[in-house]
């Protein structure tokens, strides 16, 4: 009886809460370096490689343009209205029959 009981039960609990030391480290940031800027610089996009050069005035026209924006020359291959031959863009006469291309 006695002594051991006292020792064991009396002094029970009370445990010092020993946890206090937890100052939060860990989160002092700066770890992740987000790179400044966004990678791509401000280089201008390359000019369209398939721009259409006017056969008459050599102005560059947007891809798909049908007429020169500078002189109005047709940029599309036309067919001769008389013989149906393909005409070069800017052609003024049909190379097959000589008809004037309007
Ligand atoms: Zn032109
Ligand atoms: Zn023709």
UniProtKB/TrEMBL annotation:
InterPro entries in the record: DZR, Ribosomal_eL40_sf
Biased composition (Gly residues): 29-41
Domain DZANK-type residue range list: 54-98
Gene3D superfamilies xref list: 4.10.1060.50
Region annotated Disordered, chain positions: 1-45
A Pfam family per the record: DZR
Protein name: Adenylate cyclase
The organism's taxonomic lineage, starting at the top: Bacteria, Pseudomonadati, Pseudomonadota, Betaproteobacteria, Burkholderiales
